[in-house]
Structures are given as structure tokens and as C-alpha cells.
Amino acid sequence: MLVAFAAFGATGAIASKYQGWFALLPIVSFLGFGAAMLYQLFGVRCGRCRAAIGRALNGTGYLFSVPADFRFCPYCGTDLDTDINIVQQT
Ligand SMILES: [Zn+2]
Predict the structure, then answer these.
(1) What's the domain range around 80?
(2) pLDDT tens digit string along 23-73?
(3) Ligand 1 midpoint to CA 12 (Å)
(4) 71: CA distance to ligand 1 center in Å?
(5) Which of 2, 18, 37, 58 is positioned for an S-S bond with 64, CB 3.0–4.6 A?
(6) pLDDT for 73
(7) Sign of dihedral through CA atoms 63, 66, 69, 75?
(8) 37: Cβ–Cβ under 8 A, 6 or more apart, which residues?
(9) 23 CB contacts (<8 Å, ≥6 apart)?
(10) Ligand 1: distance of its center to the CA of 67 in Å?
(11) How far apart are the C-alpha atoms of 66 and 86, rounded to whole Å?
(12) Collapsing DSSP states into helix, strand and coil, what is residue 79?
């Protein structure tokens, strides 16, 4: 998501300098940023309960990283550093 956000800014600068098809570059990179945002919201899931924990991550205020104190699933309490095979066996 950070890469798409940086690409959005860079392609915006390129598009403002050049004409023609370069004007479409910010739109494409903005769609990439939007897709990354949607993936963060709905694609990041807990390994145990499959809840969408990306929404909880968004609430922390860190859009581009996971804060160090976000260690447990807010829905089932599973330690997010636990190996996924161990989680599935329990
Ligand atoms: Zn969970």
C-alpha cells in the first residue's frame, strides 16, 4: 500500500509535467492504492477465527505498518506471532 501511495504521488508529478497518456498514470496508481486499501480492510485475516483484523489495524492510526503492541487478534485473542500450523491444530 505504501508503494502504491508513493507511486500515486510520483505519477501525479509526472502527469503534471507531460501531456497525453501520462495523465492516466495517476488514475492507475490511485486504483492500485484503492485496491491495496481494500485488501488491508478485508483481506488481512486472523489465522484462527478468520476475522478481518485489517479493520482493527486501520483503527490504530498506522496505515502503512503494524504497531508493535498489536500482538493479539481482537476477536479471538490468538497471539498473531503464533505459527499458523499450531493455530489450526487447536
Ligand atoms: Zn482471531
Answers:
(1) 2-89
(2) 788 888 889 888 988 888 888 888 889 999 888 887 777 777 788 888 899
(3) 39
(4) 11
(5) 2
(6) 92
(7) positive
(8) 1
(9) 15
(10) 17
(11) 22
(12) strand
C-alpha dihedral sign at 80, 83, 87, 88: positive
Neighbours of ion ligand 1 (CB under 5 A): 46, 48-49, 73, 75-76, 78
3, 21 Cβ separation under 8 angstroms? no
Is the torsion defined by CA of 11, 14, 20, 23 positive or negative?
positive
Residues 34, 37: Cα–Cα separation, whole Å: 5
Asked if residues 87 and 51 have their Cβ atoms less than 8 Å apart, the reply is no
Q: How many domains does the chain have?
A: 1
Task: Evaluate if residue 84 carries a pLDDT over 70.
Answer: yes
Alpha helices (H) in 18-52, listed in sequence order? 25-42
